[in-house]
Amino acid sequence: DVKVTQSSRYLVKRTGEKVFLECVQDMDHENMFWYRQDPGLGLRLIYFSYDVKMKEKGDIPEGYSVSREKKERFSLILESASTNQTSMYLCASSFPGRGAFFGQGTRLTVV
Amino acid sequence: GEDVEQSLFLSVREGDSSVINCTYTDSSSTYLYWYKQEPGAGLQLLTYIFSNMDMKQDQRLTVLLNKKDKHLSLRIADTQTGDSAIYFCAETPGGYQKVTFGIGTKLQVIP
Q1: Across residues B64-81, what is the average pLDDT?
Q2: Which residue from A77, B4, B19, B45 puts its CA 20 to 30 A from A37's CA?
Q3: How confident is the model at residue A70 (pLDDT cuts 50, 70, 90)?
Q4: Rounded to a whole number, what is the distance in Å from the CA of B4 to chain A's nearest CA?
Q5: Is 60 exceeded by the pLDDT of residue B2?
Q6: SS3 of A84, please?
Q7: Contact (CB<8Å) B92/A97
Q8: CA atoms in the 13 A half-sphere facing the CB of B81
Q9: pLDDT recorded at residue B1
Q10: Cross-chain Cβ contact B99/A96 below 8 Å
Q11: Do A33 and B42 touch (CB under 8 A)?
Q12: What are the chain B neighbours of A68 within 8 Å (beta carbons)?
């Protein structure tokens, strides 16, 4: 079974903190993605990566950065957390053009 | 452009069939997907269809694709209470790397 593991299910951080969300996949997928999910807005793509050290901006990259130093790991970084970044964050991985497999999600609250 | 549209809500009685509809705009999409999200969880890839197919059946699930109208549907036969979830339609637009999601249809199954 494909496994995509996110480091935390729930996270509470203070405004202005630097936040790291980690994601690991075990299927040797080239592509990895970070989405955020908000009620009424569906899933919005923040960043994706199609190879180690490669990244591309998604639809809402502002306030976020990413790191992919190894194929299996894709990190999302909130440089200075703000309350409007309170959301459910979903990591996914896939082979190019194929269906993505998702982690269980991280519910981040910024207070 | 890339846009996937779905209705927000569907309510059916247990034992009936459910039909969830989706329209997409990118005619170059190679794969189209259906995902299921249960409360508090990540997305689970349910099934997919390649763009040169009209229909795909997998146990209780039937996917129909009308490429001319850019319309995709998911039929769930003999709907059970465990099918209550949010269902997302998704496509891989011509760029072949990203997956674009609809806003999700919440399926409520009434016992």
Answers
A1: 94
A2: B19
A3: very high
A4: 11
A5: no
A6: helix
A7: yes
A8: 2
A9: 42
A10: no
A11: no
A12: none
Q: What single-letter amino acid sits at A2?
A: V
d(CA B110, CA B87): 17
Any CB–CB contact under 8 A between B105 and chain A? no
Under DSSP, is residue B83 helix (H, G, I), strand (E, B) or coil? helix
Residue B3 in contact with partner chain A when CB distance is under 8 A? no
Q: Which chain A residue lies closest to B104 (C-alpha atoms)? A: A42
Model pLDDT for residues B7-36, shown as the tens digit of each residue: 899 999 999 999 999 998 877 767 889 999
Give the model's confidence band at B52: pLDDT under 50 very low, under 70 low, under 90 confident, else very high: confident
Q: Do the strands B9-13 and B105-110 form a parallel or antiparallel pair, or are they unpaired?
A: parallel
Whether residue B32 contacts residue B90, with contact meaning beta carbons closer than 8 Å, is answered with yes
Whether B41 and A4 lie within 8 Å, measured CB to CB: no
**What's phi and psi for A91, nearest 5 deg?**
-100, 145
